[in-house]
Amino acid sequence: MKLLIITALLIIIALATLATANNIPKSTPVSTSKIAIVGAGPGGLGMAHELSKLGYTAITILEKSSRVGGKSLTLYRDLETGEPCTQSKDSRTGIVDTQNCVAHELGTCFLHNGYHVVRDLVEELQLSPEVAPEGRAMYSSFAEDEFHSQEMGDFITSSILAEIEKGNIEVPWYIPDTFKVFAALANAVGVYNKKHAILFGEVKYTMPDQPSASALAELDMTFGEFLESNGLHVLRAFLTVAHAAQGYGYVSSIPAFYGLWWITPELLNGYIQMSLHQQIEKVVHTSTDNWFMKQLIKKVVGCMVGGGADDVYRTTTMLPEGYNKIWETIVTHNNLNVQFGADITSIDRHLSDPAAPVTISFSDGSSTDYDFLIYTAPHAHASKIVTDLTSSETEIFTSLNSYVLSTTIYSSDPISHYSDPDTGSPIMYNADKMSTAKNDGEWYADRNDMRVFSGRTITKRQTRIGLQFYENPCASDESLCDTDRIVVNAEDGFGGSSEKVLEKFKAELDSMKVSNVEIGMQYAWPYFWHFELDSINAGLPWKLMETQGEGKTWWLGASASFESVNDVLNYNLQVLDNAGLVGEGGGGFFGKWRWWCSAVK
C-alpha cells in the first residue's frame, strides 16, 4: 500500500513538473464547449461576438463590475442643460438623436482610417455612422504665447520649418517655399513606411510578427531615438502628439516597437491623403469629398509614400452613439449571458489533466466547471485568482507595466482660442506637455464632444473632457499605485477622485485662465499595459501568442496586445485564425500597391 501511495505521489509530482515546464497540450474550444470569459470589456465581448457568429452558444461572461465596456465608458449629457440623458431613436426613421443627447467618451474615443474591424462592427450592428471632428486647437511654443493656439496644419508647418532652419531637414533648392513643408513631410513618411516594411514585413492583422534579431537590434531604443537615428526629424513633433495624445506614452521613453506598431504606414498614408485634400481645398475653395478626387488622391499618395490605405478624406472620426453602444449592442444582439458582480476567488485549470474542466470558484462559496477559459482582465493580476499559472505565464505577466490616463468630465465657460465661438475647435492639444515624464499630470488635451456631435459651438457653459497622463503614476499619487482598480458603476468613477490628480487638473485649468469650473467625475484609468525594452528583446509579446490554447486558455485583452480597441479586436481575430477558426480578415491593410501605381513607376 505504501508503495502505491508513493508511486501515486511521484506521478502527481511528475505531472506538476511537466505543467510547470510548459509541456502543456494546446486545445481549441469546439462549438459545444462551455466557455468562461473573464471580463466584459472589448476583448471579452469582441471574442464572444466572433464565437457567437461561429455557432458557439455556451458562453458565459464573468464581469466583476455592474457594466460592460471596460475602458470604453460613455456618459450622455443633454446639450442644453448638461444633465444626464438617454439617446432616443425615432420609431419611424430609425435615426438616433445624437445631437441633443451627446455622447461623452471617458475612455476609448477615436477611430482612425485603419480601424476596419471597428467600422465593420458599427455597420454590422447598424449603429449611427461616424463623424469627423473638424479642427484642432494646438498650444505649443510655436504659437504666439501660451494662451494662443494654432490649427494642426499650422503647428506641423511651424515644427517642420523650425527643423529646416536648424539644418536637420534638407529640401531641394528647386522646390518652391509654399511646397517645402509638404515635400519634406511626404518624403519623411515615405522613408518611415519603407523602414517599417523592412523591420516588420507584411502585417496581416495589427500585431507584427516577431522581428528578426537584426531588426530587434534596430528597435532597441525609444521611439524618439528611432526617429532621430533614421533622420526623421520632420515627423518628431507630429508623432509626439499622435502617440502621446492617446495615452500610449511619450516618444522619448516608449520602446520603438510600440511606436511603430501604433503609427502604421496605413495611418500615415491616410494623413498625407487628408493633408492633400486640405491643401487642394484651400486653392479651389470647394470640397474634394467626392469619389473622383478621393480616388485620384489615393493613387497619388500611394505612389508618393507607400503604406497603402483606402481612400481617406479625414483620418480621425468618432461614434455619435459612443463606443459603449458597441459593447451593449453585442450583448443584446447575441443574447449573451453576462454575469455582473462576479467575484472570482480562484480559477483552477487542472493542468495535469487535459480532460479535466476549468473550475471557477466565487466568493459566495459556489463554483462552476467550464471546458475553456478566455481571460481578458489585466494579466499582471491573474496570479491573484489563477492558481496554476505556469512559469512561462508568470514570466510574461510579471514583466508587464502600465501607465495612467486620467479623463475628467467637467464644465466651464468657453476657453479662449479653443472652444470659444471665434475658434470653435472640438479638440485641444498642448504639444509641449507631451514630451517627457516631467509633464506627468499636466492638462495636455481636452475634447468638446458637444461641438463634435451637435455641430454647434455652445456660447455659455460647456461640458468637456480633460486629459492627464502619468508615466510614473505611483510617484505622483499613492491612490494610483493600485493598478487593479475598476469602475463598478459608470457615473461613479473609481469610487471618487484621486486627490492629487484632481488638484493638478484644477491648477492647470487655473493657469490657463479657465473660468467657472465645475468638476463632474474623474476616471484615472490604469492604462496601456506594455513590456519594456528588455522584455521585447526577450520575445515576450510573441511568447504569449505561442502559448495561446495551452492549459485550455486564451489570454486576450489589452494586456496581450496594444491598448487600442482596434488592436484588441484584431488580436482576437489573430488568435482565432491561428486556431483554425477563421480563414481571412484582419484590420491591417495588406497586399501590393494598386496596378496604377506600379504602371507609372
TrEMBL record:
<feature type="domain" description="Amine oxidase">
    <location>
        <begin position="44"/>
        <end position="385"/>
    </location>
</feature>
<dbReference type="InterPro" id="IPR050464">
    <property type="entry name" value="Zeta_carotene_desat/Oxidored"/>
</dbReference>
<dbReference type="Pfam" id="PF01593">
    <property type="entry name" value="Amino_oxidase"/>
</dbReference>
<dbReference type="GO" id="GO:0016491">
    <property type="term" value="F:oxidoreductase activity"/>
</dbReference>
<feature type="signal peptide">
    <location>
        <begin position="1"/>
        <end position="21"/>
    </location>
</feature>
<protein>
    <recommendedName>
        <fullName>Amine oxidase domain-containing protein</fullName>
    </recommendedName>
</protein>
<dbReference type="InterPro" id="IPR036188">
    <property type="entry name" value="FAD/NAD-bd_sf"/>
</dbReference>
<dbReference type="InterPro" id="IPR002937">
    <property type="entry name" value="Amino_oxidase"/>
</dbReference>
<keyword id="KW-0732">Signal</keyword>
